[in-house]
Amino acid sequence: MVKAAVDLHIHSCLSPCASDDMTPNNIVMMSKIKGLDIISVCDHNHTGNLEAVSKAADEAGILLLPGLELETSEEIHLLCYFPSLESIFNMQSVLNNYYLNIENREDIFGPQWIMDASDRPVRKVEHLLTTATKLDLYSCVSLVREIGGVPVPAHVDRSSYSIISNLGSIPGDLRFNTLELSRGVSKEDFLKKYPEYADRFFISSSDAHDLGMILEREWFIELEKLSIMDILEKLRG
Predict the structure, then answer these.
(1) pTM of the predicted model over 0.90
(2) Which of 65, 70, 85, 86 is the most buried (most CB within 10 A)?
(3) Shortest CA distance to 118 belongs to which of 65, 40, 59?
(4) Are 153 and 163 contacting, i.e. CB atoms less than 8 angstroms apart?
């Protein structure tokens, strides 16, 4: 068994709400300094920086779980984890058909940069990424699983952009094994309010939008071995 220190919800500078210094190499180097074994960069509704993060992570000896924070048409945030860059880029190719194409206002929201492996800007995404897509929750979950990924409801404890706040409960027929809690929210406190989810597996992530927010070696997952497939199986249940 391997006890891996993880942070499975980090934003890069592609997310307009993230700091400009959240570049691929900066994220990986800070994760290395903080002693993390596995990270996942989950930008809002886009995968554009994952190739550069993957190269930096490989060089640093950190395992990257390809991820995406997708906002459904119900304004629910869903973390979507995939077994490979190829599979998550397949997800991106489908997602391209479901954007609302609202122009990003950089003066309000900030720029949305795609970077190369040397942290050089390649291009900006022009449509606003921090808004709902046209994919409803059920369609999104089905699509992610068809491509081999694992969907995980994000920050289920929050009063906005969470599956519980927006639907009132977590539909049982969606068969979510894993739920994400916000940093600083304990499983025990959450279950006092929602005891019906006591049988779920919980992860705690930073939802980092600046380098200082990335987790230290403070949250661990036990795995058979340090691999993407093992962590996906853990999340899938």
Answers:
(1) yes
(2) 70
(3) 59
(4) yes
